[in-house]
Description:
Layout (H helix, E strand, L loop, with lengths): L1 H15 L3 E6 L18 E6 L2 H13 L4 H31 L7 E4 L4 E4 L4 H14 L2
Parallel strand pairs: 1-2
Antiparallel strand pairs: 1-3, 3-4
Helix pairs in contact: 2-3
Amino acid sequence: MRGIVLVLLLTISQLGMAQTISVFYNNQASIIPNIQTTKIKQFKVQYYNLDQLQMVMNIMNKKLSGSDSELAYNNAQLLINHYRPEIKHAVKGLNLAQRYHISMVPTVVFNQGQYIIKNQANIFMAIDQYRQWSERHA
């Protein structure tokens, strides 16, 4: 009886928790569906392009090249402020990728590491796999 109550409480708490998905990809590993146009019901989804920080750095370097040192310094400060949200998001993605030991992309992480699917580009298929797994482990 005690085990049944524990399973029931676990199931209820999982239903009450916000379901989260973290999707990790790079410029070579695209994901399906298009992240700009798709909302996924029942999940809070965060997308992390692991190449984003390097892309921002490349843009900043390109804009700063050829400037004298004082002008470059002033422009660098402006660029850092302009790209601050992208930089913060990129660093957060890299930190999470390290925490989840992500070694290949695309990778889809459910509920802060509860279930991780590597090499899955289709988020809807990943959700189906997660639902099957969670039903077996409920």
